[in-house]
Amino acid sequence: MNALLESQNVRIALDLNEFERFVTQRNPTKIAVIVDENTYKHCYPLLKPFLPAEHLLIKIQSGEQNKTLTTCSHIWQQMTDYAMDRKGMVINLGGGVIGDMGGFCATSYKRGIDFIQMPTTLLSQVDASVGGKLGIDFQQFKNHIGTFKIPNLVYIYIPFLQTLPARQLLSGYAEVIKHCLIADADKWQTLQQSNYHTLDWQDIVQHSVAVKAQVVETDPYERGLRKILNFGHTIGHAIESYYLHDDQRALLHGEAIAIGMMCEAYLAQQKGFISENALQSITQYIDKLYPTLIIKDEEVAAIAQLTMQDKKNEGGKIQCTLLEQVGKANFNQPITLNEVSQALQWYQGL
After folding, report:
1. Across the 350 residues of the chain, what is the mean pLDDT of every consecutive 10-residue run?
2. Collapsing DSSP states into helix, strand and coil, what is residue 33?
3. Active site amino acids
């Protein structure tokens, strides 16, 4: 596992000493730290003693709705005003939004400068920060503009999880469930037999990061196998996008992916890939952890239509990742708009 983590420049730690040594050895000319209002309050005070005294603090607003070119312009302007050169460094202190967008800004500023991902949420620690995917949303489409670039360092500081609200922690846990369902049936059984409230988060993070690192090492640019990491995301992203700007019903990423996994497990069962018992175990476990979303009948078609913009699609066909069995997934499985609607209607009936 250590070799895999090293290939992705990942460190999992209970202190910040190695982070400080890395920055000192890299010796950047200037440092910019990107935070939102939450990480500025809860995480930046923990990191600040390990940073050079002189650095730029760039504050943005939290939330997926702010993962846009407008926010990128603000970040680039701050870096420009600070006269950062090509030997500068960006430290992205936050969840998936800051990691995706801050990394995108760093790789495009002066054609690319060093950047460190410091994921502060469970979601970003087990998924978003690993593998080099960077980007922003465009109009109503998630991660529509972006690139691939492995960070100079991904420093996963486990104690950051103690700063999270319960809802954010649970959102990240959806990606943990996903990694087990696509790659480790034994770990899936362990999760089902465990108490969520007493989980060992260091063990959980190490397992998920190892799963993702193994997949990314095999297929860094998502030409094939890496697409299995999108289980739950074809329908989940559509749900997340549809409600993104609805203040009353907006979902966190993991909440939408949890629904997406149930719907896509249903499609796998309907196609004869997994058994009814497997579907029931997946549905019951996820359903007891996550709040139920009430999808109105008139919203089903609109949500389904959003799957047509999924990045895995080819030739106008929806390409989904479906479970072949618990612990193994197949990518590039064609599904139709009608099947997406059927899955959403099935979910409504749970």
Report:
1. 75 96 97 98 98 97 94 98 98 96 97 97 91 90 90 97 96 98 98 96 95 92 94 97 91 96 98 98 97 96 95 91 97 97 97
2. strand
3. 111, 133, 175, 212, 222, 226, 230, 233, 237, 253
